[in-house]
Write a structure and sequence with these properties.
Elements (H helix, E strand, L loop, with lengths): L7 H11 L3 H12 L6 H19 L3 H15 L5 E2 L2 E2 H16 L25
Helix pairs in contact: 1-2, 2-3, 3-4, 4-5
């Protein structure tokens, strides 16, 4: 299965994630996850756990966020630096930094959530 971040549920979820609408991103990606096969299934499960972690953090559940971020990192660990069009290596580094900050009790010092970067940028709307 090819993960298409340009249209459908994956694109809708990515847009929600970028707008910090983590619960909605989770819902979009879960629709794709339910019909996926390995290795994409576990990869999407990790991304869904990331969205759930940040949803927990938005609701001030730091311990829930830490637990889900660690679970996502375990799932992402075997994947190469780029998988399914996503810069996994960069994402892993950012998530690990978040875990360290949250475990140190410094979540208030974080200004932005980690981005999910694509290895090829999405085309701009209205361009060819």
């Amino acid at each position: 299965m090819t993960l298409d971040w340009n249209s459908g549920e994956l694109a809708d979820g990515l847009r929600c994630y970028c707008h910090e609408e983590f619960f909605e991103a989770h819902e979009h990606w879960e629709a794709v996850w339910l019909r996926s096969q390995e290795p994409e299934k576990t990869f999407l499960q990790a991304l869904i756990q990331v969205t759930a972690a940040f949803h927990h953090l938005q609701r001030n559940n730091v311990y829930g966020a830490i637990s889900l971020l660690k679970a996502a990192l375990r799932r992402l660990e075997p994947y190469p630096a780029v998988f399914g069009g996503v810069a996994v290596g960069t994402l892993r580094e950012e998530l690990l930094s978040w875990v360290r900050v949250l475990e140190a009790g410094k979540s208030a010092s974080i200004q932005t959530f980690p981005r999910i970067e694509l290895d090829k940028p999405l085309p701009e709307v209205g361009t060819a």
